[in-house]
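Researcher: Structure prediction, please.
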Amino acid sequence: MASSLPHRLAAEALGTAFLLAIVVGSGIMAERLSGGNVAIALMANTIATGAGLVALILTFGPVSSHFNPVVTLMDAANRALRWREVPAYLVAQVAGAVVGVWSAHVMFAVDVLQISTKVRSGGAQMFSEFVATLGLLVVIASVAKHREEAIAYAVGCYITAAYWFTASTSFANPAVTIARSLTESFAGIRPADAPWFMAAQLCAVVVAIFVVPRLFGQNTKVQ
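Model: Predicted structure follows.
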């Protein structure tokens, strides 16, 4: 039985909040324990994020587990979600993401309200976000159609890899990008750079809308 819209929105908000708490909290912990070794800090942040994604998608999947505006947009384009529900999904995801960042700050006893100064600019970073986001959408679309039970593991593994094969460390999520502009931690992004990341992510959605049906057929559901 399909879940009601309020239940789905609650799942999106709570799941996205946990995701950002994992991303930012593990980034703070990694930075504190790595002794200045950026590679070790990134590795710790990567493992926590990938594992957390698997757990969260398995947990919230029966209700709703996009946690990502680009996934929601792709779902709507594939007619698996009503377009009139999309704005509510996006608000829930962004609100949840911001709460998740603030929760991480509280857990690590740092200022709750912060603005990032971490520079992430340049064409290589933008192209990295396009590639990371397009790859994520293609992975989800294929696995959703052919091995739906494996979506959580596919997404977790892909993001784990994309942290390392992209110059941007694979945000691949506009809600995550907005929220990470509100932390001065290892995971942050300067607010001036965030719109460019989001533009690249949305460009990937446009490309995916044309590519996915040609690869996997029409009306491919994105979970």
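Model: The helical segments are 5-33, 38-60, 69-77, 86-107, 123-146, 151-165, 174-180, 194-216.
Researcher: Thanks, that helps.
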